[in-house]
Write a structure and sequence with these properties.
The protein has 317 residues and is α/β, with parallel strands linked by helices. The protein has 2 domains: 2-152, HUPs (Rossmann fold, 3-Layer(aba) Sandwich), CATH 3.40.50.620; 192-315, Elongation Factor Tu (Ef-tu), domain 3 (Beta Barrel), CATH 2.40.30.30. It contains 10 helices and 12 strands. The strands form 2 sheets. Strands 1-4-3-2-5-6 form a 6-stranded parallel beta sheet, with helices on both faces. Strands 7-8-11-10-9-12 form a 6-stranded antiparallel β-barrel. Strand 9 and strand 10 (238-247) form a beta hairpin. Helix 5 packs across helix 6. The longest helix is centred in the last third of the chain and has 23 residues, at 293-315.
């Protein structure tokens, strides 16, 4: 998959293409429907499928300080899009100047002049241009002028997790913030992932016999509610079953919120300085302060046992 940052990166001889535009944070199942349809139509038409997205998130530029928690960094979104068959990813730097483009200017500069769109595939609530004034109806009108079609893909409605709401990044962020990892997984189509570099912490886990990878998460990451979770610690191509702690470590009067993953039965790992990923499968228990270190050790042993059981059950599904 080709990756471009800015309009100037698009090859001069780029031909017609099928395009879809959006933030696509998380590339959840609703996004997968739209992107998948764009890829399908591109194959039918014999042209490349292009995803257009933005960095930073538009809300941060339009309303500074409002950057939403991110479900996936750009490199992870690119990996997921490539798996769906996308041919090229265009990341547009979202600046104050760019935010002032009218819907018509956006169509002309991006879709027509640079990507030579033959077809644009979007969800029903797609908005674009200055003050989000453009919608799919306006896009279709522009298509008649510039010779491209517009296809609208209705999003599936989520099940029990969302209470009947359409799949959305906003809903997924809420579920993650609540610690509902099963609900988030239902929308994402996979466990929620947090990434970052392993840094040195207080090393109390090592002293207690349960060494953890203290993950310095990427900026604006959507981090689950405080508690203990079952999941996986990914180091390179290896995925290790893990018990994961999120919180301030109240047992030792901590103040900084951390994400720490214990790779079950692995006490031989030296991960400092490595970029790792942590997948959250299921909530085990809330964060608590125990009467003694001995009581904490009993709880950790039970956390590991419960995490192992949850992971084995999931892999047996």
């Amino acid at each position: 998959m080709q990756r471009w940052r800015g309009l100037e990166d698009i090859p001069q001889d780029w031909g017609r293409s099928v395009v879809t535009i959006g933030s696509y944070d998380g590339v959840h199942r609703g996004h997968q429907l739209i992107i998948g349809r764009a890829v399908e139509r591109a194959r039918e038409l014999g042209v490349p499928a292009v995803v257009v997205t933005f960095d930073p998130h538009p809300s941060e530029v339009v309303r500074p300080g409002s950057h939403p928690p991110l479900l996936a960094p750009h490199h992870r979104r690119a990996e997921l899009m490539a798996e769906l068959g996308v041919d090229a990813l265009l990341i547009l730097p979202f600046t104050t100047e760019f935010s002032k483009l009218s819907p018509a200017e956006f169509v002309a500069k991006v879709l027509v002049d640079k990507l030579h769109a033959r077809l644009v595939v979007e969800g029903p609530n797609f908005r674009f241009g200055h003050r989000a004034a453009g919608d799919v109806a306006f896009l279709a009108e522009q298509g008649t002028t510039y010779d491209f079609e517009v296809e609208v893909v209705d999003l599936y409605v989520s099940g029990s997790a969302g209470g009947g709401e359409p799949f959305s990044s906003t809903l997924t962020r809420r579920l993650v913030a609540e610690g509902d990892m099963e609900g988030a997984r239902e929308i994402l189509g996979r466990p929620h992932r947090v990434e970052g570099v392993v840094v040195r912490g207080a090393q109390r886990g090592r002293e207690l016999g349960f060494p953890t990878a203290n993950v310095e998460t990427l900026p604006h990451t959507a981090i689950p509610a405080d508690g203990v979770y079952a999941g996986w610690l990914h180091v390179g191509d290896e995925a290790m079953p893990a018990a994961i702690s999120v919180g301030t470590n109240p047992q030792f009067d901590g103040t900084e919120r951390t994400v720490e993953a214990y790779a079950i039965d692995r006490v031989d790992l030296d991960l400092y300085g490595l970029h790792v990923a942590v997948d959250f499968l299921a909530y085990v228990r809330g964060m608590a302060k125990f009467d003694s270190v001995e009581a904490l050790l009993v709880a950790i042993a039970d956390d590991v046992k419960r995490s192992r059981e949850l992971l084995e059950a999931y892999e047996g599904e």
